[in-house]
Amino acid sequence: MPFFLNAKVRDLEPYEPIAGDYPVRLDANESFLQPDSIAFEEIIRAVESTAFNRYPDPAAGALCAAFAGYYGIDPALVTAGNGSDELLSIILTAFTQQDDKVITFTPDFSMYAIYAGLAGCDHMPFEKKDYRLDLTAAQGVRARVVLFSNPCNPTGLTIPADEIRRFVCSTPALVVLDEAYMDFSDGTLIHEVNDFENLIVLRTASKALGMASLRLGFAVTNERLTRALRAVKSPYNVNALSQAIGTALYNNHDRVRHGIGLIRARRDKLREMFTLISRQVPGKLELIGSEANFIFAKCSEADAVTAYLKAQGIIIRQFDGTLRITVGSAEENHALLTALQEFFGGEAYA
Ligand SMILES: *Cc1c(COP(=O)(O)O)cnc(C)c1O
């Protein structure tokens, strides 16, 4: 008998990052920072003290306490996940029923649509105007979940905390606020989750902490939703090594803050130089947003620019008519800006 895959998975493709060996990778919003030698010693100590024969702590207690300590929040409101991706998947499957409406806004993080589909939800993507998120578009729709990133990936734009507060109060839906990039901006709601019945804030160690390899994500929400989340996640979702290493790293507040400061400074510099280049080519390159560890720009020759950069060993992300470029090290940003300048026929950027 032939076996037919069910409709909701039939057309899905495995996630494939850009393959190949490229010296400058500015495509995945990773950090350009590696742990320094002291951090490496702490990581080695964390590995040495791991009980490899035992299951990890299901509550990831030490890790959640370290995360909460850095952000100045109550650890009882934190749930750890195997990346915030896992938490998105858990939230959308556990807190919805078949055919519930899930609202997202496009463009936004591509995984939202996939998890909403897998959960059997009725996914309603609202098109943004000029890349701007307008929550009032979702008002009055009886949705179960409203999901968006702030700052937004890929646009690099933010909306004010007050607009989000008003929206959360006005909707019966669960609002999932993905703050994966909030360390690079201002306006978090992470300290206010107890003020709302229906708000979950997501954070990750992949961007600001520069630890995408560990797969550590965090959901911050009120006690009732935290209890529900902890009840529905698989018990040992965060492995012991990631728990131990993440705990050590989040406990060093100065180092975390310093790393974020370095990335923000590089980002500001990249934005400044990118803007200078865009001014030389009116109508061809326009910066949209940069409140993250990447910049996002409209580009009339996005295909050609991306191909040109690739030929120089530089990988960025391209969406239709736009470019998303992760902030790299000083050398990586220099290589990028030089190649951009060459593409547009200007003098080499010095
Ligand atoms: C990178 C990213 C994530 C995924 O983070 P992980 O913790 O690595 O799974 C979530 N949301 C947004 C908007 C992101 O860009």
Low-confidence stretches: none
Average pLDDT over all residues? 96
- Alpha carbon gyration radius: 21 Å
Bound molecules: pyridoxal-5'-phosphate
Derived structural class: alpha/beta
The H-level CATH homologous superfamily of the largest domain, spelled out, is Type I PLP-dependent aspartate aminotransferase-like (Major domain)
Total beta-strand segments: 13
Percent helix among the residues? Answer: 25-40%
| Quaternary structure type | single chain
What does the main sheet amount to?
A: 7 strands, mixed
Describe the structure using short key phrases.
single chain, about 350 residues, alpha/beta, Aspartate Aminotransferase, domain 1, Aspartate Aminotransferase, domain 2, 2 domains, seven-stranded mixed beta sheet, four-stranded antiparallel beta sheet, 11 helices, about 15% strand, globular, binds pyridoxal-5'-phosphate
